């Protein structure tokens, strides 16, 4: 059936009808007084979502662009940085950092396992000369479904005193409690097609006063991603370059929806959906890739045995028009990932688990009792 496509991937995520209708409005001039009012409202609501009184800047980029802006604005070539690497995106920040001439020290963990905060503590406490300029962390490692312990790692960074913490919160912002001011996070990057419930195209960077101080001595060249230009324009309810007007209409509507739901309710919903998904998958006898204690609230990664991961994805798409994400790099063909991020509710999880049960039967899987997955998920949701 046409127009029944169901996104259950970590991004893009489903877009509410209210947001789609807002984006369908006729664009207006991005230098007009009316659009300045839109920017002012969005900026205030972004600060609410980020739980900060500091700057939250909008860029016409992907999440990777937001992270690159977060790196290049506050560091200089040769600066020593610690980069957590336990998945595809941690690996990416290693590559980005090296591309700009930073002195990178990786703190690694096996894919599917969380970063060890003690490894950061040891490096930071040993740095008596304060040569470490930044710690770069992926909070929710979407490639594996791992949620790294940002709060503890950040505390060790704060104890160091000099280093900035630069956070990839692309799939945790809006799905997990990230209280920027309470934790004292310096640079937090995110992207529109995740918890924000709008299509790809906007990136966001929250910046602390400590980070702005570092900006004054940072020497990596930048122009389009120069965050000072964005701050100067945002302070005047404007933008330094042409923004995606209709996408911002959508963002305005999405943020209104989020405020109506409330932060605590949003975070509780994502926890509930995560627990229900994991319970349903476990009841079907399928091994989860990430442990319960470090599970991302954005996606659940599954490493099936006795049935092919790509066959599951293909059958789900063909029979039910439900999109699941696959594995990346060495995990390609070995795992599939169920997204439960953004505009996702209880009904979506029950539908996905029911479709997964049917798919497993179609593929001849013998490891589950029919109905067990839906029953386990429904028990959590009930």
Automatic annotation (TrEMBL):
Cofactor: pyridoxal 5'-phosphate
Function: Soluble hydrogenase catalyzes both production and consumption of hydrogen from suitable artificial electron donors or acceptors. This subunit catalyzes the tritium-exchange activity.
Domain of life per record: Bacteria
Residue numbers binding substrate: 337
Residues modified as N6-(pyridoxal phosphate)lysine: 194
InterPro entries per the UniProt record, alphabetical: Aminotrans_V_dom (IPR000192), Aminotrans_V_PyrdxlP_BS (IPR020578), PyrdxlP-dep_Trfase (IPR015424), PyrdxlP-dep_Trfase_major (IPR015421), PyrdxlP-dep_Trfase_small (IPR015422), SP_NH2Trfase/AEP_transaminase (IPR024169)
SUPFAM superfamilies, alphabetized: PLP-dependent transferases
Protein name as catalogued: Tritium exchange subunit
GO biological process: glycine biosynthetic process, by transamination of glyoxylate
Domain Aminotransferase class V positions: 10-328
Protein's organism: Rippkaea orientalis (strain PCC 8801 / RF-1)
UniProt-listed PROSITE patterns: AA_TRANSFER_CLASS_5
Alphabetically ordered keywords of this record: Aminotransferase, Pyridoxal phosphate, Transferase
Subunit structure: Heterodimer of a large and a small subunit.
Family: Belongs to the class-V pyridoxal-phosphate-dependent aminotransferase family.
Molecular function via GO: alanine-glyoxylate transaminase activity; L-serine-pyruvate transaminase activity
UniProt xrefs under Pfam families: Aminotran_5 (PF00266)
């Amino acid at each position: 059936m046409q127009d029944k496509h169901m996104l259950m991937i970590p991004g893009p995520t489903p877009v509410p009808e209210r947001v789609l209708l807002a984006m369908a409005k006729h664009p207006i001039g991005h230098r007009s007084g009316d659009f300045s009012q839109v920017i002012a409202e969005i900026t205030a609501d972004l600060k609410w979502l980020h739980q900060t009184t500091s700057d939250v800047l909008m860029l016409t980029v992907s999440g990777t662009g937001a992270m690159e802006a977060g790196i290049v604005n506050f560091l200089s070539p040769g600066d020593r940085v610690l980069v957590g690497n336990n998945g595809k995106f941690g690996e990416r920040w290693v590559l980005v950092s090296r591309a700009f001439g930073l002195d990178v020290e990786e703190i690694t963990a096996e894919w599917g396992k969380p970063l060890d905060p003690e490894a950061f503590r040891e490096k930071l406490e040993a740095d008596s000369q304060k040569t470490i300029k930044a710690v770069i962390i992926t909070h929710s490692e979407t490639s594996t479904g791992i949620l790294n312990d940002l709060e503890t790692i950040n505390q060790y960074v704060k104890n160091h005193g000099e280093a900035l913490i630069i956070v990839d919160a692309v799939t945790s912002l809006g799905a997990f409690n990230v209280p920027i001011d309470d934790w004292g996070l310096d640079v937090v990057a995110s992207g529109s097609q995740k918890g924000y419930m709008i299509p790809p195209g906007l990136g966001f960077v929250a910046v602390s006063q400590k980070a702005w101080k570092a900006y004054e001595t940072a020497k990596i060249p930048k122009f389009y991603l120069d965050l000072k230009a964005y701050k100067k324009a945002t302070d005047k309810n404007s933008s330094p370059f042409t923004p995606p007007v209709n996408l911002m209409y959508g963002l305005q509507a999405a943020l209104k929806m989020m405020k109506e739901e409330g932060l605590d309710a949003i975070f509780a919903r994502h926890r509930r959906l995560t627990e229900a998904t994991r319970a349903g998958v476990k009841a079907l006898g399928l091994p989860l890739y990430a442990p319960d204690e470090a599970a991302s609230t954005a996606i659940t990664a599954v490493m099936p045995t006795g049935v092919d991961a790509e066959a599951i994805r293909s059958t789900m798409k063909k029979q039910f028009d439900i999109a699941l994400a696959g594995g990346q790099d060495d995990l390609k063909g070995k795992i599939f990932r169920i997204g439960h991020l953004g505009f996702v509710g209880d009904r979506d999880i029950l539908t996905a688990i029911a479709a997964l049960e049917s798919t497993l039967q179609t593929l001849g899987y013998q490891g589950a009792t029919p109905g067990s997955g839906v029953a386990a998920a429904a028990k959590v949701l009930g």
